Automatic annotation (TrEMBL):
Residues 31-204 form the Isochorismatase-like domain. Keywords: Hydrolase. One of its GO terms (molecular function) is isochorismatase activity. Gene3D superfamilies: Isochorismatase-like. This is Isochorismatase family protein.
Length: 215
């Protein structure tokens, strides 16, 4: 099995998922931004002219620009272009050869190309924390909040948010800067985060909140 072709859908709205159980607010001095799996390979399952994906990329770009202004460290995840059967493990059973079959699509999408100061994490499983030093880097910089955007919401984004929570890192999932296989999958991830482990926010809300804190 591989990832199916993905059709555009209307983004979920706040009235469709429960209110957060916590009242956390993003604090730039304590936060890091994670741009999750925005590689050409994964983007290519959306239509080349997808308005939805164009919107997601624009939202991520805006979020990253804001993070840079606030001196928030920016992390990217990316799977290696070539992976052995051993390194892929059960991913092959679930998804087939994946990116290994199309190594030419390993780059981050051009409009989100990492800058020299950004940190690139090698992605081995759903969670960005698996076999990476993300938690250690955040701890060294005394950052215990992780703002998460990218794809896919109900897989890697959700698993990363869950592991962040279990490592005492507060996850903030950006509802309008993530995408998924379907609207149902997208909404499932948002509902799970709000009910169990973190907060759902939006790019607009996050930037506005920071403006209020800074004023």
């Amino acid at each position: 099995m591989t990832i199916p072709a993905i059709q555009d859908y209307a983004f979920p709205t706040a009235n469709e998922y429960p209110a957060a159980k916590v009242d956390w607010a993003i604090e730039p001095k304590k936060a890091a931004l994670l741009i999750h799996d925005m590689q050409d390979y994964f983007i290519n399952f959306y239509h080349p002219a997808s308005p939805m994906m164009s919107r997601v990329i624009k939202q991520i770009s805006a979020l990253k620009a804001w993070a840079k202004e606030q001196r928030i460290p920016v992390y990217y995840t990316a799977q290696p272009a070539e992976q052995s059967d051993e390194s892929r493990g059960l991913l092959t059973d679930m998804w087939g050869p994946g990116l290994t079959a199309k190594p030419e699509l390993a780059n981050i999408v051009a409009s989100l190309t990492p800058e020299q100061s950004d940190r690139l994490l090698t992605k081995w499983r759903y969670s960005a924390f698996f076999l990476s030093d993300l938690a250690e880097q955040m701890m060294q910089e005394q950052r215990d909040q992780l703002i998460i955007c990218g794809i896919y919401a109900h897989i890697g984004v959700l698993q990363t948010a869950a592991e962040a929570f279990m490592k005492s890192i507060k996850p903030f999932v950006m509802a309008d800067a993530i995408a998924d296989f379907s609207r149902d999958d997208h909404l499932y991830a948002l509902r799970y985060v709000q009910r169990n482990l973190g907060m759902v926010s939006t790019v607009t809300e996050s930037i506005a909140i920071d403006s209020l804190i800074s004023s």
